[in-house]
Design brief:
Layout (H helix, E strand, L loop, with lengths): L1 H11 L7 E5 L6 E6 L13 E13 L2 E20 L5 E12 L3 H11 L2 E2 L5 E2 L6 E10 L1 E2 L5 E2 L1 E5 L2 E24 L4 E3 L5 E3 L4 E4 L3 E5 L6 H4 L1 E15 L5 E8 L4 E12 L2 E6 L4 E4 L20 H46 L3 H9 L4 E6 L2 E6 L1 E5 L1
Antiparallel strand pairs: 1-24, 2-23, 3-17, 3-21, 4-5, 4-12, 4-16, 6-7, 8-12, 9-10, 11-12, 12-13, 13-14, 15-16, 17-18, 18-19, 19-20, 20-21, 22-23
Keywords: Membrane, Transmembrane, Transmembrane helix
Protein name: Glycoprotein
Amino acid sequence: MCIKHTILVIITIIHFTFGFIAYDCHGPAQNVTSFDSLEVDNCDFPIASTTQQVPRIQLLQRIETYPVHFKSCLITVDYLITRCSLFEDAQLVEGGYFSEVVDLGNARCSEIHQKCSYTFPLGGIVTDLQMNETTLISHTVAGSLDRFGNCRGMNFKSSRGEWEDVVVQAKFKIYLSEGSAIANTKDNTLILPSGTKMKLSDNYGIDTFKGETVWTNNHFNCEEQDFVVLFDGPASLITSITNDNSSIYTYIVESDKIVFALKKIKKTFACEIPVIQTEHPQLVILTDSMFLNHFQIKSISPQNTDLMAYINTKFVYVENVFKSTISASYNDLLQKQCVLERQLLQQRLTLASNNLPEFAYIMGGGPGYTAVKHAEIIYLIKCKKLVSM
């Protein structure tokens, strides 16, 4: 029983012995790094952003709406149709009282506004019509009836029917008006003050309240109707280099009253004038000094106020400030790190002149390296691992 315990104890205390690791530095080199003992390369820093002052730019906004002058005509008629009787009094015929709206068309409505007069369908004229006022006038359009009681009928035809030997008296209500509507070139619509929308290119439409409406949209002035100047003054042009060596151009304006930043997307044209398209489709930048006086600053209408575009320019400004600050801090850190590593390398190369094995150990980060010097070039060689028993 004692013998078995003794054997067990002996077996458990036996240690296994392994070979140690050695290095072969005379065989084929696995990795060789060369160093110039006389000169260390300078640090290669990222290209910093450059800032250029631009004396004057204009920030233009494409506008979709502009005011258009319109004229309206609304003429209604109340008809009273009677027939002469033997007792010299008038008898109302069946269906003899109704109302109609007179259809004029574009040309006649424009003519009435131009002449301030209206010619009745069957003769007669009313003049001196006033704008934005209602004119009431009675007129006998068929037959005759005088103050002496003489009555003579005629045949009369309208959209409501036909009558024979009747006297037709009409009460005309003429309302001429004019005003300013909002034209939207993007949607091709004209919006009247009443809210009625019409097709802008038709130059004619019917409003429920104002009647037939005409306008002229043929005389087109690009700089007045297509663009408005939001800013006119100096700016800073910041040029940044990306990782793929492409350039990003950003225009920044900083003043007491306005702050914004816009990036250049491409070159385009505004009213045949070269401009810079920004990341916002409605905003372009004019920098050519030959055309800086072409567009005039004027107040922008509420319909053309693009708050989202204005707010986004602030975000771009904040983004640019943060990016510039972080990039400057990062570049400064890289510079200090590179300078420190360069100084360490210079010290180690100085060590190599006196002690190559120590240089190989430090530069390799441990054993397994050797160094060979030929003239001013020092070669750091990674040795092959071997197991020695």
